[in-house]
Backbone:
């Protein structure tokens, strides 16, 4: 269970405090400027974020936090309100890889592996999907239906598989011929253990696509967390099934 909520904070044109000298502080300044933020000093009253790269940061961090700022302290996760992930940039797609401050080296290693997997064209596909948003809504007004159509098209081997270099160029043609998904089904997953790593690839895919989760008492939270956060959830009395559910339904049996 994670103790952090990953967020993308828009700082373009906003002041951000950076305190300290040396490469660690310079790295934070570059990071802020790359995102369009303005690096300012400790006395700035409008800043809401602060980065501290100092040998003895405790007092300064506490003073900033008392003023209502969220504070990041280099190499001191115990003093951090937020941590800085390793960022893979395929603008407008950003992948943020974090370890909760446990190991920046691990986050970097994972980013470098993913750099080899994700094509540079990923940003073009994201931009094309953004431009096609209105057209998608007109073609598929129902949100659940629209999500299922996109899930299929963006899936491995799909018409606009994001790992293909030319998917952005195929988007318009795909949308011209896209059809409504078949009626959703009801799928049952009989758990073999409380470890989500024991789910098969198909079971993990079904959990990630489900519109509704119906689960018996005893299903671990770690399993339920593999589903979409916005999927509806129903706690089942053992032996019962949801009534009137539409779309893809997954029944979890402990």
Residues:
């Amino acid at each position: 269970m994670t103790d952090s909520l990953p967020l993308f904070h828009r700082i373009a044109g906003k002041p951000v405090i950076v305190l300290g000298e040396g490469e660690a502080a310079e790295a934070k300044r570059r990071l802020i400027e790359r995102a369009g933020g303005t690096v300012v000093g400790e006395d700035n009253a409008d800043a809401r974020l602060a980065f501290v790269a100092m040998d003895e940061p405790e007092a300064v961090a506490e003073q900033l936090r008392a003023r209502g700022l969220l504070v990041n302290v280099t190499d001191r996760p115990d003093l951090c309100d937020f941590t800085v992930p390793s960022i893979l940039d395929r603008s407008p797609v950003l992948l943020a890889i974090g370890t909760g401050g446990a190991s920046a080296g691990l986050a970097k290693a994972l980013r470098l592996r993913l750099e080899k997997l994700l094509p540079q064209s990923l940003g073009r596909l994201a931009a094309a999907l953004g431009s096609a948003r209105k057209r998608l809504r007109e073609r598929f007004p129902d949100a659940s239906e629209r999500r299922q159509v996109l899930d299929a098209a963006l899936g491995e081997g799909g018409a606009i598989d994001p790992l293909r270099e030319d998917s952005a160029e195929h988007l318009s043609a795909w949308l011209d011929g896209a059809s409504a998904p078949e009626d959703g089904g009801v799928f049952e997953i009989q758990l073999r253990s409380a470890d989500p790593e024991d789910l098969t690839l198909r079971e993990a895919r079904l959990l990630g696509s489900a519109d509704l989760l119906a689960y018996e008492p005893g299903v671990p939270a770690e399993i339920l967390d593999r589903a979409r956060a916005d999927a509806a959830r129903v706690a089942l009395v053992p032996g019962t099934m949801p009534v009137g559910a539409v779309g893809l339904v997954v029944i979890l049996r402990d």
